[in-house]
Amino acid sequence: MNSNGITMGGNDYVGYEYKTVAIDNEKASLLLDAYKNFGWVQDESMQAKQFGNTVTLKLKRDRKILNKAELTRLQQHFEACMDDIVFLENSIAKKGLIVSLVIGIIGTAFLAGSVFAVTAEPPIIWLCVLLGIPGIIGWALPYKMYKTFMGKRAVEVAPLIERKYDEIHEICEKGNALIH
Questions:
Q1: Distance between CA 173 and CA 34 in Å, rounded?
Q2: Around Cβ 44, how many Cβ atoms within 10 Å?
Q3: Is pLDDT of 112 > 60?
Q4: Which of 6, 96, 115, 174 is the most exposed place for a label (fewest CB within 10 A)?
Q5: What average pLDDT does range 63-71 have in this prediction?
């Protein structure tokens, strides 16, 4: 100990590398658990911040961790799997949304034609009715189509998402074996 009360020559110093990760709130626990298998821990000095459904986590790990190259490779594989899961989950609603929007726009075009037919001089009532029926159907149908396509897509991607989660667990097991 020197004259200032500071211990000299101790090997207590640990240099850290830091990482900031933003993810959906519902996947934050999974992410924290998984990153532990690559040597990362939550930085206690920095609180997790939440913005809407997104949580920003601050992580740190020892710069001199053993097997760092392999851990980094496994971590990148894990991150790619997480990106795939997010993509697959987002794809569930996209197809239904696109189909329902197209149907709604077509229905709107029919209703616009119906309005133009009734406001023409002289009014063409038969054309107004003829265009109005598919227009109303085009406005009523999108929600049902959205739900139908979303349900079908959810069934399609569920096994793919499950396989990705299985792959994540295998990756985490390999990472955990490297740090222990």
A1: 9
A2: 8
A3: yes
A4: 6
A5: 89
d(CA 102, CA 93): 14
Please report the pLDDT score of residue 7 as a whole number.
46
Residue 164 corresponds to which amino acid?
K
Mean pLDDT, range 61-76, rounded to an integer: 91
Residue 4, token pair as written in the block? 């200032």
Residue partners of 59: CB distance under 8 A and separation at least 6: 18, 19, 20, 21, 35, 40, 41, 42, 43
Residue 122: is the preceding peptide bond cis (ω within 30°)? yes
- H helices of the chain, in order, are 28-36, 68-119, 125-179
Token pair recorded at residue 22: 């933003």
User: Distances from the Cα of 172 to the Cαs of 120, 175, 180, in angstroms?
Assistant: 69, 5, 12
Mean pLDDT of 148-162: 95
Cβ neighbours of residue 12 closer than 8 Å, sequence gap 6 or more:
none
Residue 3's pLDDT is: 45
User: Whose structure tokens read 């709604």?
Assistant: 104
pLDDT of residue 150: 94
Give me the amino acid identity at 133. Answer: I
